Amino acid sequence: MKTPAKETDTTMNSNCSSCSLSSPKLSIYLVAVFALIVVLFEIQSLQTPPSWALMEKIFTNSCLSTSLHVSSQDELKAMASKLSRAVTFLPLKDLRYASTAADGHTWFMSSMHDVREPDKVRYQHFPSEASGGRVLCLKGRDRRDGARNSYALAWPETLPRNATLARGTTFVSYNHYDYDNIWHGLSVLMPFVAWHIRGRCAVGPPARWILYHWGELRTDLAPWVKTLLEATFRGGPLKIEDFGGGDRAVTCFEEAVVMRHNEGGMSNEKIVEVYDLMRCRSRVYCGAKSREVNGSSIGMTVLMRDGPRSFKNASEVIRIFVKECAKVEGCRLMVAYLHNMTFCEQVKLMSLTDVMVSAHGAQLSNMFLMDKNSSVMELFPKGWLELAGVGQYVYRDLAGWSGMMHEGAWRDPVGERCPFPENDQRCMSVVYKNGKIGHNETYFSEWARKVLGEVKLRKSVPVSINRVSGLCGCNY
Description:
By secondary structure, this protein is an alpha/beta fold. The chain has helices at about 1-15, 25-45, 50-60, 65, 70-85, 180-200, 225-235, 270-285, 315-325, 345-350, 385, 395-400, 425-430, 440-460; strands spanning about 90, 125, 135-140, 150-155, 165-175, 210-215, 215-220, 250-260, 300-305, 330-335, 355-360, 375-380, 405-410. The strands form 2 sheets. Strands 1, 2, 3, 4, 5, 6, 7 and 8 form an 8-stranded mixed sheet that branches. Strands 10-9-11-12-13 form a 5-stranded parallel sheet, sandwiched between helices.
């Protein structure tokens, strides 16, 4: 009866022998597994990779888990070290897509796909199922050449060597224009508010913002936009990352949200929600007093500019609108230079404005701070209709997105003479872009009379137009 037992012991010893550290079979096994993992990692580098948990399972389910536990842990650490060194960095700005820099995947993080949900903002979220559980890592802080800055994905357990893990949520913005202009800054950062609303505002303010323009790092933001974001996210002063650790330092992020398509993909309803929340929280932040929605008073504000696109005869323009406002009971005309006003002073002014009169320019970005269904009257210098392209319509679009009424535009037929043929595109940059705006008393009077009459009629109809209750709990 003892003979079979001896045979069994011999078999068990044979099995364990096959797992010994000196066994050729083990060496071949480890090399084969490592080669398979590396091949899979490289092939699917920035797509959906095998997870670190799967790699660990490969080892722990093998014979090593029963007979060589300590050795398997050493092997896993060695494997982690190799995977850490194998993290592949790609340029933030992919020059292969320079001709379609803002289209599709864009030349910014060109290998990555956006999450697309019907009618909602397009975004990337790390870590996520789409990233295979990997976090976003960034390297470089070049401000002149985005191709010298780079990105990679890595598992939290195998971050690149000497990488720093930044805790909290990080918002990463790509802007094809700039962050100094309040319209460009507003349009590129409002998608983060949409993402915030998408999660029912359950997540607090981001720990930091990272701003890129063509892959080049930016560390400043128009003060108006900065204060608007502070008011909207209610998180105190914005922290804009400057990567002070040096050009080659690597920072990985516990959670990161990347936006690169502005309002692209969003339905008008979702965009209106964003401006509703920003209006509401800005008014709460600034302590703007609520006024009677259906009252008889009408606020008409003429926004003035210095320099480019200012009025040739500002006093005459003001006189015309004062005259027409005086003909309407309860109308009060206000004149303002917004560059002399703080953000909260602008918020309070807009909360009292039912009709905004302004030359085309970034100051029109304030329109969403008015009550919904308020009116916008826009004026242009000569040459814009013919040569300015689609950019001349951005504030008409903003009016629709924020629930305002764009009451058309007046285009000055008179202006400085261009030294080139009239329809030569050079005329726009040399003369017309910064041209000054004249006036037409007959047209302005009839236009103002019509708009003020419509506003008075709208305000006579009992309706609540400004409440956003239920949207992240903001009420005003």
